[in-house]
Specification:
mainly alpha, 4 helices, about 65% helix
């Protein structure tokens, strides 16, 4: 085998190794992007009924009766425990404050 052919093989295999490393880095970056997209936002905490009522500044019984808080409900099928999204409750609170500001 001539020396030029061996040098060409070495160059090709070196380039192939570089491309494989780059592909592996891209796959890792893609995996991290998918992981961050699938993981819940840290600000979207889940609150129980008592914590959600305290967060909104209302008694638990009043909180349970209000229909508007159902938008923040995160219950799964066959789950008895009620859980509420903090982000949705904050959004409801902001809407309520904006409505009060318009009334004045």
């Amino acid at each position: 085998m001539p020396a030029d052919a061996v040098a060409e093989f070495a160059r090709l295999f070196t380039r192939r190794a570089e491309l494989l490393r780059e592909l592996a880095e891209l796959e890792e970056a893609l995996g991290r992007a998918f992981q961050s997209a699938l993981s819940p936002e840290p600000s979207d905490e889940v609150l129980g009924v008592a914590e959600a009522a305290a967060f909104m500044g209302e008694p638990v019984e009043t909180f349970r009766r209000r229909f508007e808080y159902r938008k923040a409900l995160l219950t799964r099928p066959r789950e008895r425990r009620l859980r509420y999204s903090r982000v949705e409750l904050e959004r409801i609170r902001q809407n309520r404050l904006a409505a009060r500001a318009v009334e004045r």
